Amino acid sequence: MKHFLRTLSGIIFLILNVLFSPVSAQTSYKISGRITDAVTGEGVPFASVAIKGKTAGTTSDENGQYTLVTTQTGDSLLFSSIGYQTRAYPLTLAPSQTIHAVLMSAANRLQEVKIYAKGGDPAYRIIRETIRRRDQFDPDQLTAFQYESYSKVEAYVNNFANQRKKGRGAGPVGKLLSKLPAIYDREGKPAVPVYVSETISEYYQRSNPQKTKERILKSRASGVGVSDGGVAAQLTGSSFQQYNFYRNYISLLRKDLPSPLGQAWQTIYTFRLIDTVEVGGMVCYQIDFEPKRMTDLAFSGTAWIDTTRLGLSQIDARVDQRANINFVDEIRLEQEWEEVGDGTPGHAVRLPVLTQLLIDTDEPTPNAPGALVRFYMAARNVQVNKPQDTKFYEPPLELAENYSEKSPVYWQSHRPENLSPDELRAFEVVDSVRNVPFMKVLGEIVNLTMVGYYPLGSVHLDAGPLLNSYAYNNVEGHRLRLGLRTNTGFSRRWILGGYLAYGTRDQQLKYGMNIDYVIRKKPYTIAGIEKTYDIERLGASSENLGSNTLFAAYTRFGTLRRPYMQESQTTYIKSELGKGITQTVSLRNRTFEPLFPFAYSVKEPDQTTASFYRTTEVQFETRFAPGALMIQSDNDRFTVEGSNNPVVTFRYQLGLRNVLHGDFTYHRFSLNLRHSFRMGVLGRTRYQVNAGYIPSTIPYPLLYIPLGNETFFRVENAYNLMNFFEFVSDRYVGVLGEHNFEGLFFNGIPAIRRLKWRFLATGAVFLGGVSEANRTLIPATNELGQTVLGFQSMSRAPYVEVGYGIDNIFKVFRVDAIHRLTYRNNPNVSTFGIKVSAWVNL
Questions:
Q1: What is the pLDDT of residues 353-410, one digit of tens each?
Q2: What is the pLDDT of residue 701?
Q3: Domain residues for 167?
Q4: CB 146 within 8 Å of CB 386
Q5: Residue 259 sits in the same domain as residue 346
Q6: Rounded to whole angstroms, how far apart are CA atoms 315 and 261?
Q7: What CATH code is carried by the domain that includes residue 606?
Q8: CA pair distance 666, 618, nearest whole angstrom
Q9: SUPFAM superfamilies, from UniProt (predicted)?
Q10: Are 760 and 804 in contact (CB under 8 A)?
């Protein structure tokens, strides 16, 4: 059973990183058969099948099998594929007929080709000239282009009925899956659909400035553990499926695969000129390519380059299980590029008008089921060099209000080609699968694990988050927490939430509540109020931790050093202003009630020290994330940062004295920059810079406390060998960096390259200081005569830690060895540590 759960989770993970597919129609004529190569007898995948002179058509599957169901008929059926002659077979008026097609290699071959070149295989000279001319064909070089997009995705669990060792039948998981509704492939093997969808959208792109926009017009989706089809529609549209082989890298499954037409073409690949053939009415060079090291994360395949203009016409690119990528047996990406007039006489540009992607997953263990994901995308009504106004491209991703369309009649008239009977049954079958009691429970578990909330049915409430339900620490004892929030069934404008928490040791009730209202969706603007009363700890408060929910939950366990109670009221408004800018303005009033000996000096003559204080502050936060896409999930929105552009966040906080009983006037400035970029064959670098300045005299809990990490696992945005609340600063700068060499080193070592390990180097530097006024604000004792716990500031030397690690251990784990180079004599610190982290990683 654990294999089954792992497989299902893997399928969903793949789907969210890739895309989804097919659907339904009723017709009168059925034509089926298999398309094979005349020489090898092997099936021809993704071949085009069409009735001559009609619009009805389909494509073959990965085994060459096809089925066409249509109300149209004609005198012949045409079969065509890349590198083959188009061939016609006669049709009859029989309601059901079988036509097996045999395709010959393309007829327009050169009688004899002899090319003599000093540079070895002439393919290198052709590719070199193709890359030199890519500005003429690269879609990114156009002023603008736009098209209507149709995409379909389907995901299946397969290979569960195979015989095991010693002739034994399928295991318990296989027997369970065998009882579920399935679609059978042409080899008679069952495949259980777990997700199907199709989407129609409009895609726009322009340059100078670089802008993209996609508007999801219609979509429908169904799957195990999928509760919101709108998320799938956004993640599987054209915005995430731009496979442009003229770019240096192809982004696929969150991996950067070097393009055979990119700058690293000669470093990564070897090329061979195979032949000269006719493709789509043009005579093309047929060139095979493959990585110099088969374990490198790169493509193998064939490209067809036209002989006259040296532009890409067709490409068939594959990645097999030898490459350094997890859970994948094979990836196959095929594209057809067509010329599109741009209004200039005698000049035409090319765009990929058909993209087909097949992802066949590798079974985690020999007896575990596998998964298959298919993706198809077609572009039509292409227009070029007609840019829209820059404001038109905001927001970059937009979901139409009435996007959900389930009517089969609509999809019959809007999809570009007919689908096979199995594809037409996909929605019906997957609905049957998801309603099986076991699969229904499994889907709820998967959804709870990924989302963190459990829907409570018709009351339109979700319970969670799961991670925060329980904790144990020295102050609260056993902490029990129950949280609720409304979902879209309650309202798509109003969002209500709250929680109650109770500690068995302190016997104190904590709570939180919030009310949010979506003011408008174009541009997206939301306002809300929030009130909480809960325990926090210096150096690991919710403000320090940010969005790291797993680490935040873990910090409530164990010993809470310097804990305090905080009552907080916040009012805010947040709006997406366009061009990647999000602006937030908030007003917050909060208290500090220490549960440890604390005091600060008060300047008023009637009181020398105080332990309690209240602050009132206005906060202005500006976030600039060019190229990021906002995804709407029910009433939540989250960001997908799919570009190499840096993300910058600037924050200014103004403390207001005597406003809502605020005790201080202060100013806080902070800047955060996050960036990830590719360094060619050397791998990918990620870094984060934090800087800030507080030119005010205030108690040290209001100064900046860098995030430490006393846990055994590594945290990305923390200084992993720094203790909680080890340093305090009112002026600071910090840098966190990581470089992943991927398979650069280990792929060249025969003994371990099959393990697919990846080597990493990490480093972190923090430099800060505290003004003398803030140092002297802390008295020796408080009003009760207790010794006040102070803080440590830094000298002129920065805090430095460096590390190295191995990622992808058993495809899940990462282990880092980290050395602390400075402040090694501080009390209770570790100068060396091993940190572990784990996640599903491709």
A1: 888 888 887 766 666 677 788 888 888 888 888 898 888 888 888 888 788 877 777 8
A2: 94
A3: 123-441
A4: yes
A5: yes
A6: 11
A7: 2.40.160
A8: 11
A9: Carboxypeptidase regulatory domain-like
A10: yes
Q: What pLDDT was estimated at residue 801?
A: 97
CA angle 278, 280, 285 (to 5 degrees): 40
Domain closes at, from 506, 521, 536:
521
pLDDT at residue 628, as a whole number: 74
CA distances from 785 to 5, 599, 610, 796, 815 (A): 59, 10, 12, 33, 47
Q: How confident is the model at residue 114 (pLDDT cuts 50, 70, 90)?
A: very low
- Closest by Cα among 203, 56, 136 to 337: 136
**pLDDT at residue 4, as a whole number:** 39
Q: Are residues 332 and 379 in the same domain?
A: yes
How open is the CA angle 789-594-707, to the nearest 5 degrees? 70
If pLDDT is split at 50, 70 and 90, which confidence band does 135 have?
confident
Q: What is the pLDDT of residue 506?
A: 94
Query: Domain check: are 132 and 201 in the same one?
Result: yes
Q: Where are the alpha helices (DSSP H) in 201-260?
A: 229-235
- What string of DSSP letters covers 441-490? HHHHHHHHHHHS-EE-GGG-EEE--GGGSEEEETTTEEEEEEEEEE-TTT
Cα separations in angstroms, 356 against 58, 241, 266, 295, 375:
13, 10, 26, 24, 6
Structure-model confidence comparison of residues 771 and 810, the more confident one: 771
Query: Encoding tokens for residue 562?
Result: 């310097």
CA distance 185 to 467: 41
* Diameter over CA atoms, the chain: 105
Q: Are residues 150 and 267 in the same domain?
A: yes
190-206 and 144-158 as β-strands: parallel, antiparallel, unpaired?
A: antiparallel
Is residue 441 classed exposed, middle or buried when 0-12, 13-18 and 19+ CB atoms within 10 A define those classes? exposed
The residue count for the chain = 842
C-beta separation of 194 from 156 below 8 A: yes
Domain count, the chain: 3
557: number of Cβ within 10 Å: 14
Helix (H, G, I), strand (E, B) or coil at 68: strand
Does residue 417 belong to any structural domain of this protein? yes
The reply to whether 21 falls in a domain is no
User: Is residue 448 situated within a structural domain?
Assistant: no
Q: How far apart are CA 698 and CA 379, in angstroms?
A: 60
Q: Are residues 480 and 579 in the same domain?
A: no
| Of the residues 521, 549, 565, the one at which a domain ends | 521
Sign of the alpha-carbon torsion through 188, 189, 194, 195: negative
pLDDT for res 394: 82
Task: Return the CA Rg of the chain.
Answer: 30
Q: Which helix (H) or strand (E) holds 732?
A: strand 731-742
Pairing of strands 731-742, 609-610: unpaired
Question: Are 210 and 260 part of one and the same domain?
Answer: yes
Residue 797: partners with Cβ closer than 8 Å, 6 or more residues away: 822, 823
Peptide bond just before 827 cis, omega within 30 deg: no
Question: Is residue 205 located within the same domain as residue 258?
Answer: yes
Which one, of 335, 381, 357, 394, lies nearest residue 202 by Cα? Answer: 381
Within-domain flag for 272: yes
Using alpha carbons, list the distances in angstroms from residue 798 to 371, 451, 654, 768, 823.
50, 39, 28, 7, 9
Tell whether 397 and 498 lie within a shared domain. no
